[in-house]
From TrEMBL:
NCBIfam families per UniProt: KaiC_arch_3
PROSITE patterns linked: KAIC
The protein, known as: KaiC domain-containing protein
Keyword Nucleotide-binding: yes
Record bears the keyword Lipid metabolism: no
Entry keywords, A to Z: ATP-binding, Nucleotide-binding
GO MF entry, a single one: ATP binding
Start and end residues of each KaiC domain: 4-232
Organism: Methanospirillum lacunae
Xref: InterPro entries: Circ_KaiC_arc, KaiC-like_dom, KaiC_dom, P-loop_NTPase
Length: 232
């Protein structure tokens, strides 16, 4: 934590966020496949662990063992944290009743029990898929995010971008309900091979933030946002 901010620990990104996320808020990372949404979530968790915080990662796509593998592959020694300050939970979104109950009821209790400071859900899009209509989806997601805020944890949700609009989430909803929205996308130049990853902080309630689009890079053991560079 830097002052009263919750840091990502990603060079350049915290600078764009005026030092990091505001404690107790909900942030969303929206992006297309391959943009590194899960990477952002894991760096957010690792930064918390290094700060002595308790963290929870909810995965709706990957097995728990795969998440542990990804973290170790970055050179992180997570062994001292597993089952203590680091909790990884896999949910099966195909079982409607189980998934709904787990996210709405069991997750808040888990946050209370572990005293989690940071919570990530990857991807929240699969939870949104469970609802049949837009009105129910909006109502339930609004209640869920408000519950997270009431638990005094700082939450990060990843969301798949809409197939037809890379600037929007699948249901064009989570960006309105979140306090902070970080957009990831591909930026293509004139050349076919001239492709970069670009990041933009499009929204941050209660705080100033960078409104520039910046290139970023995913390396084996680090992520870097190049705040001094332009995309093209």
């Amino acid at each position: 934590m830097s002052g009263d901010r919750i840091t990502f620990g990603i060079k350049g990104l915290d600078e764009m966020l005026s030092g990091g996320l505001i404690p107790g808020t909900v942030a969303s990372v929206i992006g297309q496949y391959g943009c590194g949404k899960t990477n952002f979530a894991l760096y957010f968790l690792w930064s918390g662990l290094l700060n002595g915080e308790n963290v929870i990662h909810i995965t709706l796509e990957e097995r728990t063992g795969r998440i542990e593998y990804y973290m170790r592959d970055k050179g992180w020694d997570i062994t001292p944290y597993l089952g203590k300050s680091l909790t990884i939970v896999n949910l099966d979104p195909s079982d409607f009743n189980l998934a709904i109950n787990s996210v709405k009821n069991e997750l808040p209790e888990l946050i209370k029990r572990t005293g989690a400071h940071r919570v990530t859900i990857d991807p929240v899009s699969l939870f949104e898929d469970l609802f049949d209509d837009d009105a129910t989806r909006r109502r339930e997601m609004m209640r869920f995010l408000d519950r997270l805020r009431d638990l005094n944890c700082t939450s990060l949700l990843t969301s798949e971008a809409d197939k037809e609009n890379e600037f929007s989430s699948r249901y064009n909803l989570i960006e309105y309900l979140s306090d902070t929205v970080i957009l990831l996308r591909y930026a293509r130049g004139d050349s076919v091979s001239d492709i970069h990853l670009a990041i933009e902080v499009v929204k941050m309630r209660m705080s100033g933030h960078s409104r520039e689009v910046k290139p970023y890079e995913i390396l084996k053991e680090s992520m870097i946002v190049y705040t001094e560079a332009n995309v093209f």
